[in-house]
Amino acid sequence: MADDRFFTRAGPFPLRQLAEIAEADLHDPSRADMLIEDVAPLDAADGRQVSFLDNRKYVKALSNTAAGAVVLSAADAEMAPETAACLVSRAPYRSFALISQAFYPKPAVTAAVHPSAVIAASAEVAASAQIDAGVVLGEGVVIGEACQIAPNTVIGQGVTVGRETRIGPNVSLECCDIGKRVQIHAGARIGTRGFGFAMDPRGHVELPQTGRVLIGDDVEIGANTTIDRGMGPDTVIGDGCKIDNLVQIGHNVKLGNNCVLAGQTGIAGSAEFEDFVICAAKVGVAGHLTIGAGTRVAAMSGITKSVPAGSTLAGVPAGDHKEWLRKNVLLNRMVKNRG
Q1: Residue ranges covered by each domain of the chain
Q2: Which pLDDT score, from 0 to 100, does residue 331 have?
Q3: Is 251 a catalytic residue?
């Protein structure tokens, strides 16, 4: 159960309502009025809680669970204990996420401006926005309806922030436009100067970075992530992208819609990702490459050339995942035989 010092739980909810929220079917309609009070893992849930199964590795935990209800696929429903009501879904993990959002909604935004905030005369702040202590808003900044700007965040001249966006503490924004319903976590730096200069034996010459960062709708940006503004063209983050903590995105990079970047991924300047590219942790991508739609990249891979849509990559330099596995098996055999 979540610590109530930090999280406020809603509910309880009857199973019929949870089924609707989860876009799932209640296997036994006679349990529709059963009240559920919280979410929990299979091995920790009790009769007042709902859990889920999305990975067959946990089938044993399903058979032993004391959960009052379980979200699962139709194929797995027969393995659930009789004590558990089944919420049958074609996407159990997604359904469980929707249920979890119902129990633990984001805290409400309180329309207020803290007296210690410093707001330029030409800034526009919606009446429904929450501006916390120590926030600085520069000239021409626009903050949309129901936004929350957490303490000590600095938003530079001309930046626009779309409605229902939440920006964490100690964030800095410059030369950027932020879409609607965006989440930016603590310490992120967006719109900082791109890494651009002319290398010369007489001394490196700084090249002005005159582009912007354009962030789409429903994007999440993790703590201490940095996104550089473009050199002339813009750096673009498409709708629905999920970017983890400690990610570096260079100038002129373009991410399509719904890309996922795990922690410590680094993307060099002018690389372009098409839609739904997924990078696991510590992936490195060289500059000026195109990564095709739906490509998946294993952790700690290094991409040195453009790849077509639907690729699955691993290794340094990154290549086809299955081929990389075969190479590793062969290498291990060679090493073993030499011993």
Answers
A1: 13-103, 174-322
A2: 81
A3: yes
